[in-house]
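Hi everyone,

Forwarding the result from last night's run.
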Amino acid sequence: MSDEMSSPLLLGAEVPDDPPAMARGQQTVAILGSGDFSRSLAVRLVACGVSVVVGSRCVKRIAPGLFPDAVELSSQEGAVVKAQRLVVLALFPEHYPSLLGIRAALAGKVLVDVSNAMELGSGVSSNAEQLAELFPESVVVKGFNVISAWTLQTGTQDGSRQVLLCSDSVEGKSEVAQLARLMGFHPVDSGDLRQSRVLETMPLRLFPSWRGPLLATFLLFLFFYAYGFLRDLLLPYLAHGRDGFHRLALALPNESLPNVALVALALVYLPGLLAAWLQLWRGTKYQRFPRWLDGWLLRRKQLGLLGFLCAALHAVYSLCLPLRTATRHRLINAAYSQVKAGVEEPWDESGVWRSDLYLSCGVLALGILSLLAITSLPTVGNVLTWREFTFVQSGLGYTALTLSVTHTLVFGWDFAFSPQAYEFYMPPSYVLAVAAPCAVLVCRCILLLPCTSTRLARIRRGWESVRKCPVSQRQQRAVHRTLPQV
């Protein structure tokens, strides 16, 4: 199983409330440093009723009005002496040795390290571990490093924010956790101080859960764009001298984006189907999935949002098509040809029905995809029950996939069977794109059959096949019936 699935979802359990909660105004918290993070943290603490003293190497250089009036400004040693237990180090790690002169005053204090790593993969010990080596008589707790200065100033309405804590002292983590709760955050125990190496690099990672989906979406777009360029532009130019390179900027991306959206949406539901078939084949749910399948399942949300982005861009591009100069010239040429041929009222009944049907299916599919994207937001998804969320993401998701496939098939069903469509023996790009969604829908329909859905439901409720369990389910029930009643 992948590392992400083997570790807890929130990187640890929420810190328990064993000690009594910190009463407002009973304790003074010292903050060493006078930068932006120090100011934001002081503003937040004062708003929560906590006494704050800020220690600086040079108090006189702090501009008037930078900190609230309730915040006391003092030297670093004076601030540490006034703090009962908690001392927040809002300093850059290279300035930690400058505190060695007040090591005696810091002894017995809980030092909260809020710094982050400077680069990824440095291979050295974390800033918190180095701080613990410098001050062995103090308790070092890593925390608040994933919270930005802006988040601290937005007020208590962002109480869904998590504060990841790690330390070798359970008591120290509990005290910092109480302070985090008082500020409106959710503290999460991430383990001992060695985990600070992971916490310090988290703010440096740029969308770590989006890398795979972004790469897959980019490669899909690159494939369909290159395929369209080769089939519709380059080969016709080399073989017949037809110059269509003006389609590179708008028409070709507009043909590639819906193909990417179709395949991306199919990739959202394909791993769930693979997991269901794997459970049916194994006859149990107690065997873990392969690591690649676990990683795929964890990236479905990102794939769905990227597919929605491609579909939305396709809609915008389609609205821009009539504004092109090439489209205006084509309409003028068509009108001139009709006048020259003596046609007064041209009307294509099947073409009108066809355009209306595939446009209607496309609009409905995009609307449902918009609903899926909105419900994937935590603020919206948190107000839905699990059944409601499953109905939206699964039931409406398959509806959107069906409408998208219908939109594509109605648009080009006759082209797919026309010999002229296979110029250079290459099928149209949408024929390649619609294969994966059709396979997903067929597999889904098979899983909805009573013979498979009933068995899958039993497996997911804990039932195991006889080849996986030495004692069959029927024998187990017979044994339970013969047991003497107590």
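The first strand starts at residue 28 and ends at 32.

Cheers,
N.
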